[in-house]
Structures are given as structure tokens and as C-alpha cells.
Specification:
Chemotaxis Receptor Methyltransferase Cher, domain 1, binds S-adenosylmethionine, 276 residues, three-stranded antiparallel β-sheet, alpha/beta, 12 helices
Length: 276
């Protein structure tokens, strides 16, 4: 790929999705964009980038962005954050929200749905939340991956990645040898919608917990800081933010501080100050 095409594509992705495309990731371009070039009748990736530069349709722009996102995920990914969510976070919120008996949770890079369905299963099985109103919103930039998430259908391989057998038996229906479907009572707890973290997300309203895991790693420091600042404005003052294991707020944003002893969990700084 000629360097002017690479630079144009890198700029397009950075502006529209936040993805920082570095030269060491150039190998991804051919494999991910060739099918999009064929779909749109542009011949090859050079033709596709030329179309993107000159008269891009909305569909072409969307397909390029979605092809370049990485949707890697699994049920109960990394295990520990879900243990912390159940013990530490829900423990505190059940007390703090006892009067109103409602919780709002936002999963901000939901991919194919394994993360929000894992959260929904924990909430459903928690006797402390019986009778509570739970609002679980799951968003992603990628409309095609959200379409998969909405079906709640997973292959045997996908469910074997992280879903404990007892929870699989309890909350999924086996449709055939290779397909399992999340039961309607869990599916109905999650509302999926498209949302780009670079754009305004005030429509999310105020939430008690945000899961924004394994997406900031693709952004540069300024973009990460901007997204964290906007998340902070959506989170209640005593709310909680989960980031991925390779992500941190340190040196990126002062909108959050790590929660001591709870790796991957972040809180707003003023609460720490008030508690002191
Ligand atoms: C690696 S997956 C992480 C999924 C899940 N949070 C987890 O930790 O398993 C990253 C997701 O972020 C989404 N994404 C990338 N850029 C985004 C943006 N600007 N706004 C919203 N979602 C974005 C991708 O489409 C992808 O589904």
C-alpha cells in the first residue's frame, strides 16, 4: 500500500472511530478491506481508498469502519472484574440504592454481546436484586456486530469460552449441536443500540456502572482522555467504571482514580476525598 493511502486511511479511521492505525498494523488492512472492496465493486483496496477519498457513500464509510474494528470478546472475560462487580460494586450499590430499588448499567463497547449478557446473568441470579428495576444498555459503534448480539445466539466454541456449564444450562437453550441461544428473560434485560464513543452520548442519561473494557486500547491518549471525561459526566458521583486489564486512567485523565485493591475498577476522585 502506498504511504499516502495508508495516511489517508489512518486519518479517516482516527477521525471517525478513534482507532489509531499504526504502521505495524498495516498487515490488517488488506485482509479486512479486500472483502469490502469486492462488496462495493471497487476491485482492490487501492480502489476502495480512492472511493473513500472522493465520493464515499454512507454505506462504504460504515463498512470500512466496521471492518477495521476488533470485536474480540468472551463471556465473563478475565473473570476477576465480574467477581468484583458482584461482591464489591453490587454490595455497595444495593445499600446505596435501597430506597429507589433501581440500577442503570451501561456496557459501552458491547461487541457481540457476551459482556452485557454476562452482566445480565449476574444481576438475574442475585437475590439481593429481586424486585429491583434494572436498566442495562449495551452500545457499540459496529452495527453488524450489534445485530449478532441482539440474536443472543452463540456457537459451541463461543459459549465454551467463559460460560460456566451450570449457567449455560440455566440461561441458554440448545438449538442444535453448534448453536446456543440466551433465554428470553436474559435477552430482554439488555437493550442494544449503536453509539460511537467519539460522539455525544448524553442520551445515555445517568448510570450507576459503566463497563468500557478493551476499547480505549485502540485510541490515542487525547481520545482516551476525552472519552473518560464524557463517561464521568454520565456516571453518578458514587458510580463505578470498569476498564480492561491493559487499560488505565493514570496519566490519561483525572476524571477517575483506581479503586484500591480492585484491579480494573475506577471511581470518581471526589468520593475518595469525601471519604477521607
Ligand atoms: C475488543 S472489543 C471489546 C468487547 C468487550 N468490551 C470486551 O471487553 O470483551 C472492542 C469493541 O469496541 C468497539 N468500538 C471500537 N471503536 C468504538 C467507538 N469509537 N465507539 C464505540 N465502540 C467502539 C468495537 O466495535 C468492538 O466491538
Amino acid at each position: 500500500m502506498i504511504s499516502t493511502d495508508f495516511e489517508f486511511l489512518a486519518g479517516f479511521l482516527k477521525t471517525n472511530s478513534g482507532l489509531t492505525l499504526t504502521p505495524d498494523k498495516a498487515y490488517l488492512i488488506e485482509s479486512r478491506l479486500q472483502p469490502i472492496a469486492a462488496k462495493h465493486g471497487k476491485g482492490d483496496v487501492a480502489g476502495l481508498i480512492n472511493a473513500l477519498r472522493t465520493f464515499p457513500t454512507q454505506d462504504l464509510r460504515r463498512d470500512v469502519i466496521e471492518a477495521m474494528t476488533t470485536n474480540e470478546t468472551s463471556f465473563f472475560r478475565d473473570t476477576k472484574p465480574f467477581d468484583i462487580f458482584k461482591s464489591e460494586v453490587l454490595g455497595k450499590l444495593v445499600t446505596a440504592r435501597a430506597a429507589r430499588k433501581s440500577l442503570r448499567i451501561w456496557c459501552a463497547a458491547a461487541s457481540s454481546g457476551q459482556e452485557p449478557y454476562s452482566i445480565a446473568i449476574l444481576l438475574k441470579d442475585d437475590p439481593r436484586l429481586a424486585g429491583w428495576k434494572i436498566d442495562l444498555v449495551a452500545t457499540d459503534i459496529d452495527t453488524s456486530i450489534l445485530a449478532k448480539a441482539t440474536t443472543g445466539r452463540y456457537s459451541k466454541f463461543e459459549v465454551q469460552r467463559g460460560m460456566p456449564i451450570q449457567l449455560l444450562m440455566k440461561h441458554f437453550t440448545k438449538l442444535n449441536d453448534d448453536t446456543w441461544e440466551v433465554k428470553p428473560e436474559i435477552r430482554s434485560m439488555v437493550s442494544f443500540r449503536q453509539l460511537n464513543l467519539l460522539e455525544d452520548f448524553s442520551t445515555i442519561g445517568t448510570v450507576d456502572v459503566v463497563f468500557c473494557r478493551n476499547v480505549l486500547i485502540y485510541f490515542d491518549a487525547a481520545t482516551k482522555g476525552g472519552v473518560l471525561g464524557k463517561i464521568s459526566r454520565r456516571l453518578s458521583d458514587d458510580g463505578y467504571l470498569f476498564l480492561g486489564g491493559a487499560e488505565t486512567v493514570l496519566g490519561v485523565s483525572d476524571a477517575f482514580e483506581p479503586s484500591t485493591g480492585n484491579r480494573g475498577l475506577y471511581v470518581k476522585p471526589q468520593r475518595l476525598a469525601q471519604a477521607a
